Amino acid sequence: MAKSRSRGTIVEREKGIFTVRVTLGTDLDGKRQTKSITVRGTKKLAQEALAKLITETGSGRGTFSAAAQRWLSIQKHRVGASSWARSEQLLRAIARVAPRLYDAQADTITASDIEQLLIAIKTRGRDMTAGNAVGRKAGLAPRTVKQVAQVVRGVFRLLEKDRLIINNPARLADPVSVETSAARHIEQDDIDRLLSHLTGVNRDVALFAVATGCRRGEILPLTWRDIDLDAGTVIVDKALKRVTSSRWDLGSPKTAAGVRTLALPQFAIERLRAMRLSQGEQWIALMARLPEPGKWYVFPSARDPARHANLKQRSGASKARRQFAPRTLPA
Fold it and tell me: What is the distance between the alpha carbons of residues 183 and 328, in angstroms, rounded to a whole number?
């Protein structure tokens, strides 16, 4: 005789042998999908097994939030620290923008629910995640909308892999259109205006970025060992990666293509020669306690050439980068 308990049933096949079954939902053809296990023992054991099975496929492991945390823990061993931190940030944004979806049973979330989430992120994401930001656009950047979609797909792939859902709504959800601005080329007037706002190491970092197209995280770890002024080249094989707002880790570029040798234009070579000469004169009195000059950073700390400049000192460069970020160097 079958005994129904909420989403599940217990059927005693023969004395002391029970089939415990829960309903997972329906497939695309409307056919009911279930998950069942066999329990040997007493009826009480069967009831406990049913309660556990309901928890695993329902209010416990079967919620989007629980799956998101499991996915995040797996990602920690698959991606770099900065990528993992970004995924965690995006999941927090989903929880704030769509708390009902975040806490819902995964098998109750539909493709249209996901589409509505992405629309909310696109149109009201900043309002809902950063408060009433006066004078700022309410929607988040197109890249952020795409990243949220990637995270949602990753979570639902895990749910599908664990057989906690039959249908994967993320596969059916249509992408949300986002507006992207056309790339603008940097002209000489733009470069002059940028450099006029900067002084000292800030200016040198910006000038090197203009000359090479390197990112800030690739520029600051450069040592003189990476620079060949005679050949006019620089080797880029290190990158600072943001882990939190105040923590950066030094590692390799994210992809093999990030390791490269770049040619330096003449104006950059001349400025680097002047910087090298200046550093040599400035630190010659301290050479007894410093490592060999080749290990000195090209853009050093004000106190020690064996340490790269503090990222917090890059405020001027950061503002300039935000102003000129949409633009690219002319071909």
Answer: 7
Dihedral class, residue 183 (left if φ above 0, else alpha if ψ from -120 to 50, else beta): beta
pLDDT tens-digit map of 255-298? 788 899 999 999 999 999 998 888 766 555 555 455 555 567 88
Three-state SS at 240 = strand
Percent of the residues in the chain that have a pLDDT greater than 90, as a whole number: 28
Whether the CB-CB separation of 312 and 305 falls below 8 Å is answered with: no
Structure tokens at 316: 């001027």
Architecture of domain 184-328: Orthogonal Bundle (1.10)
Residue found under tokens 């040198």: 204
CA distance 302 to 251: 23
- Report the distance separating Cα 214 and Cα 194, nearest Å: 16
Six token digits for residue 301? 């700390």
Residue 17 bridge partners (DSSP): 14, 40
User: What are the start and end residues of each CATH 1.10.150 domain in the chain?
Assistant: 64-172
User: What CATH number does the domain located at 64-172 have?
Assistant: 1.10.150
Helix (H) or strand (E) holding 255: none
